[in-house]
Amino acid sequence: MPSLQDSLLRWYAAKGRDLPWRKTRDPYAILVSEVMLQQTQVDRVVSKYEAWLARYPDWKRLAAASRADVLKVWSGLGYNNRALRLHALAKTLVEQHGSKLPETEEELRKLPGIGPYTAGAITVFSYNRPGLCIDVNIERIVKRAFFTRRQHLTKEQLATTFLRSFPKGRATDWGNALMDLGSVVCTPSTPNCAACPLSHGCRSRGERPEERSERERKRQSPFLGSNRWWRGRLLNVLAVEDGLSEAALYRKVEKQGRAGDGKKDGKLAFRSALAELKAEGVLHGTRKVSIKE
Known about the structure:
mainly alpha; Endonuclease Iii, domain 2; single chain; 56% helix; two-stranded antiparallel sheet
């Protein structure tokens, strides 16, 4: 293990990606980056991350903002509920926790909107301690480097092995290094073993890549005209011009791109997305639609 740790950390020092959230240990900034990176490519996140922190540098500023303003700053990243969950968490922390995140994974997981992976990521990237931030890249590397394809791992075995792999005092660098390695070298279908710093001790070197996991196989369904397209456009319009009638809202959303083969299909999708957002408590109103505070 020490040899593998040393090799990967030296590789990361030379080839690691230069990303803005790697220049801070602020738990708030780390959590913002983790939420933005969920289902969103890194290059799309960088500029939004910097704009968000410029507008909302801490939990207090975020909690004091309106939902409409939060969605406006978030606009362009998609999956707008992520912004609303961050906003709700900010209010909870300001009102109940002195505007501070807890420092243990167990306590972090008790907060609304923070699951096991996010709690582990905050532990690793903010507090520099081993944590269970196992994404698809890290899962793949741990399975390949420490086990053979013939071994069928349980989640507990995977978690235990990952936690034991952390070098003392270098949890943040280790987590970043593994993620970068999985992104550019130890890829799902075509791992570049010749360029891998772990190849000298990898248990799977030379084996045919395993079948991609279900998480890696999933392909995004066509976006234009999808339910997610309508939800995102609805919120984008209302973040700029709140309090529109349903008819006016539909016309403004439809102008942003053809969303269906016919007007009837488009209206059905619009009404479905609108009903969902109202049921979730994001929007309200009958004659006029507004973002609910």
